[in-house]
Amino acid sequence: MTSQKPIRIGIIGAGNIGNVHMEVLKQVKEAEVTAVTDVYLPLAEQRAKEHGIARVYEDAHKLIADSELDAVVVAVSNEWHAPLAVEALEAGKHVMLEKPMAINLESAKQIVEAERKAGKVLMIPHQLRWEALSLLIKQQVEKGALGNIYHAKASWVRRKGIPGWGTWFTQMDKSGGGPLIDLGVHMLDLSLYLMGNAKPISVYGATYAEFGPRRKGIGTWGTPNWTGKYDVEDLATAMIKLDNGATLSLDVSWAALVDTDNEPCVQLLGSEGGAMIRGGKGKLFAELFDQPADINLSVPDNDEGSRVRMAKHFISCIQNGTQPLTSVMTGYTNNLILDAIYRSSRTGNEVKLDWDI
């Protein structure tokens, strides 16, 4: 460990997600949130009082320029992820960058290039990887208990969950997409991680907008702006092929006429065993003595939580100069797949992934 001093962090974005980061970082003794900013300054000032944060900046540029900060958390709307992450890296800051890493593939490439030049830690906080059940299943995968994982199914299907109709959430030029980039990015990341991080090589996908344009399927998250617009999908489906011969199927939606909301779910199909995470429950599947055998997994009573584990990992990577588990290239992988799904939907063809970067 190169330093015992707390890592001083500035939070860009004082909304719901930014506030979560503030709450979590207070539980990490090696971290200290010392600055905050938001486009709505009164909210930043409110958060500073709530969390005892010393400095409030009127804009992100002034916060990034603070020479006393070691790192920043970028927790703003998708369109600003790349510009702010690149600016922070160029200013010599480590970065925790909310998902999706970028609004599109071109912006994702800019972040990768900036990270390589800066030599700083950039981490994408995909908290599903850090859930206790995910870690338990990952342990079994690494032990070989599932054998050859040849297929996985990932889904997160909401029946009535379009967020903030007419706001940046539902505008392609501000969000980069609908449920695919909002929910799908989580499911892709977790699935590829549990499958062993094989390299995606091709994608076939389709997207649909059957409800949002008609102002149906509206959820409770966010405040609608009825003078805005809806030009993103409300359902996406895809099949991803990996370089080891395995496949991954994905289904995500904000709105769909199904029986009930489908909680986030990943199913792994292996030659020796299977696994599933769904709605905070986990299970392993096997066949013993020619009979089905199921093993229920449980979260330890003293579990500190995924976001605390994730924040501690970020701080440790900064202190030790190591790459985070959810590195810039995991974010790029997700953007590469998302871009291919949207392209496949437009053309009706399979898209081969180009890894030249």
TrEMBL record:
Residues 7-124 form the Gfo/Idh/MocA-like oxidoreductase N-terminal domain. It comes from the Bacteria. GO terms for molecular function: nucleotide binding. SUPFAM superfamilies: Glyceraldehyde-3-phosphate dehydrogenase-like, C-terminal domain, NAD(P)-binding Rossmann-fold domains. Residues 137-274 form the GFO/IDH/MocA-like oxidoreductase domain. It comes from Paenibacillus athensensis. InterPro entries: Gfo/Idh/MocA-like_OxRdtase_N (IPR000683), Gfo/Idh/MocA_Oxidoreductase (IPR052515), GFO_IDH_MocA-like_dom (IPR055170), NAD(P)-bd_dom_sf (IPR036291). This is Oxidoreductase. Pfam families: GFO_IDH_MocA (PF01408), GFO_IDH_MocA_C3 (PF22725).
